[in-house]
Write a structure and sequence with these properties.
Oligomer: single chain
Shape: globular
Radius of gyration: 22 Å
Number of strands: 13
Distance between the termini: 48 Å
């Protein structure tokens, strides 16, 4: 079964399983960095809220051997969980006063999202764009969000300047920054994989002391989603640079996190930039790539700059 046949089969089977009273169809959605996904849109005829479930990853699972029936049950389960999301009366989404505390921002590539940027409010930041979205609902594992488009601003009677002001206030509060050492993160990963072993001792023996190389830190937010925007938080990098008594090199690991390196001399900037490019090409999902550039926080100027080759 090829991909198009898979989409048609899932749509027909889900429609059959849900029965009358439901509308089921496929909608193509352009995500960040030009990635286009196929979403299964399911809506009850008496409701004005229709969750979108992206089927692309399910097709990968199908090709890897997951039975179609299991996929159908999972899709319907995901729909039922989200159809009862606490959005309340949808009319309140038309009143901007109800949304002001939910406006936040994130960073995306500017060059790879030109078509999308024509349709949404944004501000430029170096080679990136600061865009705005709403956190509508969240739980321990996920968030329900909505990207803000130009049409929303017209409906709400607001401006991108007001959105920026609101997001600058809300984002650090709703998504506070978290900085951890790479060693601590790797240790936790090992603990999850090998619960019954003496991981701390094995880890220390394995890692040893990597003399001559600066420690690596990972900057994200409490949700580890769109965490690259933490570099825009007032005082975040300033405080870290002060603690390290050094300027800070910033490697854009993805939209969700950044790697920070205290710059105390001896760093090969060109080598770091090449490393970022290779990781983006081979390890980071296309829609999550932030930039191939390397940045530097100058603590004397309290400013982030792009490093040139």
């Amino acid at each position: 079964m090829n991909y198009d046949q898979f989409l048609k089969e899932v749509t027909a089977k889900v429609r059959e399983k849900l029965g009358v009273g439901y509308k089921v169809g496929i909608q193509r959605v352009t995500k960040f960095n030009g990635v286009v996904l196929d979403g299964l849109v399911i809506s009850e005829l008496n409701k004005n809220f229709a969750p979108t479930i992206y089927l692309n990853p399910y097709y990968t699972c199908f090709k890897q051997g997951q039975p179609l029936e299991d996929i159908l049950e999972e899709v319907i389960s995901v729909y039922k969980e989200n159809s009862d999301a606490a959005l309340g009366d949808m009319k309140r989404l038309l009143d901007f006063e109800n949304l002001k505390e939910k406006v936040v921002y994130k960073l995306i590539q500017k060059r790879a999202n030109q078509e999308l940027l024509d349709d949404i409010p944004y501000f430029e930041f170096l080679d990136l764009a600061v865009v705005f979205y709403l956190i509508l609902d969240e739980n321990e594992e996920a968030q329900m969000t909505a990207l803000i488009h130009n049409s929303h601003m017209v409906t709400w009677g607001t401006t991108k300047e007001e959105l920026r002001e609101l997001a600058m206030k809300n984002t650090p509060v709703l998504l506070p920054p978290v900085i951890r050492t790479m060693k601590d993160i790797m240790r936790e990963i090992l603990k999850e994989q090998f619960e019954d072993l003496y991981v701390d001792e094995l880890f220390d023996d394995f890692m040893g002391e990597d003399l001559g190389k600066p420690p690596l830190y990972v900057l994200s937010n409490r949700k580890q989603m769109n965490g690259s925007s933490c570099i825009l938080y007032k005082g975040c990098l300033e405080k870290f640079a002060s603690e390290q008594n050094a300027d800070v090199i910033i490697l854009p690991s993805s939209q969700h996190e950044l790697i920070l390196i205290p710059d105390k001399g001896g760093l090969d900037y060109e080598d770091l930039q090449e490393t970022v490019k290779q990781i983006n090409k081979s390890e980071v999902p296309v829609e999550d790539v932030l930039s191939d550039c390397v940045y530097k926080y100058d603590r004397d100027k309290d400013q982030i700059v792009m490093l040139e080759k």
